[in-house]
Amino acid sequence: MRNSLKVARWEFKRNVKNKSFIISLLLTPVLFILFATLPTLLSGSGDDAEPVNVSVSDPSGIWAEQIEPYLSNADLNWETSVVTASPDEWRDGLDEDESAVYLALDEAALSEGQITYYTTEDTPDSFAGEVQLLAAPLQQLNLQNAGLSAEQMAAVTNGIQFNAEELSDSEQAADTGVNELARIIPGAFAGLILFSIVMTGMMIFQSASQEKKEKVSEIVLSSLTPSDLMQGKIIGYFWLGMLQVGVWLLIALPFVIWRFNDFPIMEYLFVPELALLIVIALIGYLLFAALFVGLGATVEDISSTSNFQGMIMMLPFSPLILIGPILSDPNGLAAQVGTYIPFTSPAVMIMRLSLLEEWPWVEIGIALAILVLSVWLVMKLAGKIFEVGILLYGKNASMGEIMKWVRS
Predict the structure, then answer these.
(1) What is the DSSP letter of 73?
(2) pTM metric for this prediction
């Protein structure tokens, strides 16, 4: 084990000093923040957006008394003014490229319920939805003019609302939305850990292949056993993955907390369920890391890998096929089958447990047992492949040769 830790430290230090690793380490969370904020910046709907100049023709004088107080609580980027000009006169007085609207509130339009507004080419499309806010106070004004009392107006304007409630034997103490966040946030954190350490684990494939091509492994194996070398690589790249997660969180978490300041993210994150989700992610890493380090020992030239080796490299992405069925039914057949398949189990379990209110502990226990057994088996097979393949030069190993090494 001491030799394995020496290899792990060497792999860790070698990659941490690698410029490409440092760039990707810092650039990934920056790109995440950029893509999260860019749509808002491009939409032009922030505080710096140009206001819409709304000119109101109000011969009856209802705007200042009835409408403006109602709109004071609305978040509208309007600059309003009452004018006496006609629409043509208003248009002639506009500046070029001005975002403006002419709103006609004459008595005939109010009584008929057909109010016309005139826009310019630079009026934002969102105004069509914002102007609908005027419907409620104008309707109330018409009812008041019709002589209805306050109680009668309330009965008319309230309308009818249908509320659905599900019969249950026990009352739910917490709000549904809060419960969903409390499940999703730990699952998203565990998913980030799984993604990061599996991606760095894929670097084991390149490391083993490069050492084999450069014949460095001959020198290393003169003082180490193949088992020590393989285990050291797995541990070293696990440290790299955890470093990557830590840096990403250090950069991105303050932004996420600021962006979603209405939700107690830290309170939802550090919950007991997070421990099990992280364990699932770590077991998944061990499975794929063993697979990649054994596969890397069979490849001397990465550019000429066989279809078989390419299919193995795609195994970590196989759970993507099940995202749709799992989201639609976390307890469905596809989700249950994916839970028991070792190569899809880690990601599928994290997704399912992030969506389910009650965890299926029997299924979790069976899936974890299968996963741990699979890790042990893949580690054993990868050790045999690595021991033979790392010293085999001249060509990439075929599937038939790999099977012979496994049976030996």
Answers:
(1) T
(2) 0.60
